[in-house]
Queue: 2 jobs
Job 1
Amino acid sequence: MNENEIFKALADPTRRAIFEKLAAGARNASTLREGMTISQPAMSQHLAVLRKAQLVTEERQGRFINYSVDPDGLVMIADWLQKYRAYWPDRVAALKDVLKGMDQ
Amino acid sequence: MTDQSVDTPGEMPETPPDAALEFNYDLDDAPEKVWRAITRPEYRQSWLPDADLAETEPCVITPGEEVRYRMREDTPPFRESAVTFRILPSPAGGTHLHIIHEPPAIQAAANNNSPAMMRAA
């Protein structure tokens, strides 16, 4: 499992910054924005994308919602990369066989 | 965070395409033939099975050059992703095949419907 590959999936630099902050510890949306030039709606959108990607989970605590890294998401991305890194070379080998059997 | 983002608060930066699995192959066959093998179902299903696709119909982006398939795993959790095949003629008369497979995390970003997430075509 290659950590660099996992972070590579977090292509957007702002989302990556948010994710790295959360990797250091759970936070709510307003403390997440500290030190970042990002509007509240933009932060909400980034968090929504990260949640949808199963990289971040949320938990309501009183008036606040706390966000934290979802370990399942990290495992999922690592699994996915491992699976398809082996998949495509096999598929292309099969494609070459198909090409051999085709007319020009 | 970079300085550029200061001027555009609230805007979602575009997801760069390099956050995907990429493969490059050089094939001996002509680009037209490789295009047929990739886009015509009768050939395609012999090397890229229907079971691995969310839709068996390809989405042609540039005829003869670029085509995209939506993929879905055939076992739980049935993760969806997208693969793009780019076909370029190689100097020797063969084909350069570029495969770009975008992971589900990137798909989630690309499928967001909010206007700020819209990407240029």
Job 2
Amino acid sequence: MDGPLSQVLKLSHGSEMLISVLVGLGFGWALERAGFGRSTNLTSVFYGRDFRVLRVMFTAIVTAMIGLYFLDLLRILPVSSIGILDTYLWAALVGGLVFGAGFIVGGWCPGTSIVGLASGKVDAALFIGGLVLGSVLFTLGFGDLRGLQDAGARGRVLLHEALHLSSGSMVFLVALFAIGAFAAVGRIERAVNARGGASRAAAADDDISAAA
Amino acid sequence: MKTEKPFWNPYAAGIVLGLVLLASFVLTGRGLGASGTFKHLGAAALHAADPTWAEDNGNIGSLFSPTRSSLDAWIVWLSVGAAIGGAASALAAGRFRVELLKGPRASREHRWIAAVAGGVLAGFGAQIARGCTSGQALTGGAQLALGSWVFMFSVFGGAYAVAWFARRLWI
């Protein structure tokens, strides 16, 4: 095997779409079990109270990264054979800031809002309406916005290429960074929650207890 | 209050989510994603209103083909799966409930408006960055794509910068 299964086996469009549904089932299940079907769980990371979002996200990235680069090393799935995302530095920076603002104001991100809607959350349905509207507004203004979407185009750049390291060293450094982040956010959580006092803890109990 | 199953340990949930992402790389060579689905939904609406304009638009024109519905796309099917998987998990855990989630001090009306406004910002930002927390941060993060790491730190930066102003919604 020297590429993704769908290419090696030359799967039909229908089979590929069926695989996407199956991957989606796992995606939705994992997000819901992680506690990401509640906007109040998602936003508490931004008030230093519960870093569940960061823990899940960094663990997922490290897990998939180790798996992917291990398969690359074994020549089972060369990294070059999958759809590596191109880098647009300024677009990522500006888009990320706008997206982050939307995340804290709206309480969801696109993937989690699907799971929120599927578990009955009214605010997720409203957020999804906003997502469609925001995408449409961008499309309507695309003539003026095209330059922003292309800003800082660098093509395919991987972190270890930019830093002139081997992929193995980079994987190790990212994993180390994640472990350091886990230790740091644990300390922040303890400080914030100790300072918060009993009254606030009681008020927020409904939101945070489920995540404890 | 009904008894709900506890959420998974976050590290265990992260490992499962990471394995789902890895499976997606192995099976189709694509990662995960979500914002693309909402782009497709908006594009389909614009196409219904004015097919010629939509097909000529630089952002969405490439989504349309004469042979297949624009909604018959891998990311839309992935989201269909995510909705079914999420609903199944919520039902099995006793967590399915129609409700509006908000902080203790927020009014319902403010939360409604904020949910829509936040969605507009997130949808717009995801279009600038060509992806969201799933399609950029998670997928590109695991690939070690430079732009995806810039995006991830930028998302946290934007959210922390606005968190103080949005505090009455959540705490």
